[in-house]
Known about the structure:
The structure holds two protein chains of two kinds. By secondary structure, chain A is mostly helical. Chain A has helices at 3-12, 15-35, 42-131, 139-147, 149-156, 160-179, 185-195, 197-203. In chain A, helix 2 (15-35) runs antiparallel to helix 3 (42-131), helix 3 packs antiparallel against helix 4 and helix 3 (42-131) crosses helix 6. Chain B is an all-alpha fold. The longest helix of chain B has 37 residues, at 54-90. The model of chain B has no long low-confidence stretch (mean pLDDT 81). Classes of the chains: A mainly alpha, B mainly alpha. Chains A and B meet through helix 3 and helix 7 of A and helix 1 and helix 2 of B.
Amino acid sequence: MLEWIITSILLNLPGWFWVVSLIVGFAAFFFASIFSRFPHLRPYMVLIKPVGGLIILCSVFMYGGTEINNIWEERIKKAEEAIATKEKLADEVSEKLAKENADKRRILEEANKKQQALTGKLGQAIAAAKSQPSGTKTMTQVVVENLGDEERKKYESMNVEQKVKYEQQIEELVKNSKDCPTVPKFIIDQINQASTNKLKAGEQK
Amino acid sequence: MKKLIVVLLVSSLAGCGIFDRFIPIQQKWPEQKDQTLLEACPDLKKIEGDQVAITELLKSIVDNYTLYYQCSLKNDGWNEWYRTQKNLWEKKK
Lengths: 205, 93
């Protein structure tokens, strides 16, 4: 009930106050014991002695409370500092990881764009190779020209063995495109079906 | 007797200082800064149309592979974030 009074005293009075109070209590108790031997002072000392004792007990109690309060405040302060440091570190780590993830996503998107651009040109390159009159340029030359500078440089930097292999691949690609201009519907349906497997797994929940 | 009471009182007050388990402060679990990781993985793209050239099929396949790797990055991102944060959380000081 009176806890708030003790708490407010603990928070507002310094520790040394209770040390002084303890000394006063001891002095009162001690001198009251001595002066009680004088008959004309005894009636006063009978009152002062127990008051001194009460001051001693109260001072010890309050000094102990103040010190314990200080110890706890110090511990809480240290714990708060440690937690604040860890939280700051955790935030920094989160931000660092977020940045790393963003970099990875950017690299992935760039690779996708690059490959999609090449794939887009591939259709035109195959069409150009199919309509190219024979004898003017090789099939590979026509395809490489239509695929852009990067692919052309890559082709030109190849050694003879690599070029032979690459040309075979291009011929196979153009031949395949001539023989099978469109992908069979059955294959498309199978691919589309496979792409919805996740939805089916979700339905079974 | 009085001395004994005083000594006991002082000892009992000093004894309170040894308890250190119940400090009423707790660390917050960190927030995920990368909002992209909170998004669900999109569905794979379907191939539209009946007359599909091989190059169109290739485009869809490349797109779907990219979607897979984007989702895989999210999963790896969460795992790495959780492992790192857990290590930090469990670290004493």
